[in-house]
Amino acid sequence: MDLLQLHYFCTVARNEHMTNSAKELKVAQPSLSAMIAKLEKDLGTPLFHRQGRNIKLNHYGRKFLRYAEQSLLALEKGRLEVEEMAGLEKGIVSFVAYSLPRFRDLLRGFLVRYPNVQFRILQEGRMDHRVSLLEQGAVDFYMAYPPVTKEGISGHLLLTESLKLAVPKSHKLAGRGSIKLEEAKDELFIGLKKGTSAREIQDGFCREVGFSPRLVCEMDEPAAISSLVSAGVGVAFLPPQNVDRNQDAFELLEITEPACVRTLYLAWMENRFLSKAARAFREYTIDYFSNEARRKF
């Protein structure tokens, strides 16, 4: 048994698909299958239930996965600590988020201060997938909505922001300035795909006032929503911070009822080593949003 086998096994266990895992690992599928088969032979028992290309961990596989992940995380922690002891000045910071434009100015400012640091950023809409990436050690941080409340995960509330209702300039509601959300119950909405945390938050606001939004378009990319509002396709929830100040194709209406607010959260694993670069990014991020909140007032 070697480290490569453990790494391959953890990847296959996470994806539950041999072909997708082979693509992610950049190896031929037969080689990956042979590596997993050799690991199972070394352990003396199958680790997966196989159904074509789809595979699922069995009882033995789930037990072994826990120790395999712990072993790989321990080795990665050791590597990072040795690098830091050796005075490594540059590093890599990784995080998972969904609405990436929200962090554009944050990343720019951090890189001005720490030009030798590199980023590895993953975009993921589902909260459970983001948390899983954090727990697996695939990323240093989770930066998204809503907050994470789970044992072993620490975090910091960065920002609470109000969502507005974006309507085209030609829309009957344009010029109102504010609106009760129930007044939009008959409108066609543009939103993110079902299952994303942002969509669940927004659907919850609508349910609170007694309706389910009629989705005319469900999208993968949050930044593209405003362009369809501008085209007159429908209305949408938007945070004012994500809107180009120079846009004039749609209006943002204040939602007076209910309070449509969401909380941006930075999370990390409590007992996992963070590199010097990651710790600097955490401190910078908390200061950045603290200063942003003060600027609003």
TrEMBL record:
Q: Which InterPro entries match?
A: HTH-type_LysR_regulators, LysR_HTH_N, LysR_subst-bd, WH-like_DNA-bd_sf, WH_DNA-bd_sf
The record's GO CC annotations read: cytosol
What residues does the HTH lysR-type domain cover?
1-58
**Origin superkingdom:** Bacteria
**Pfam families per record:** HTH_1, LysR_substrate
> Which keywords does this Swiss-Prot/TrEMBL entry list?
DNA-binding, Transcription, Transcription regulation
A GO MF term: DNA binding
Q: Which SUPFAM superfamilies does the UniProt record give?
A: Periplasmic binding protein-like II (SSF53850), Winged helix' DNA-binding domain (SSF46785)
Q: Which family does it belong to?
A: Belongs to the LysR transcriptional regulatory family.
Return the protein name.
DNA-binding transcriptional regulator, LysR family
Q: What is the species listed in this Swiss-Prot or TrEMBL entry?
A: Seinonella peptonophila
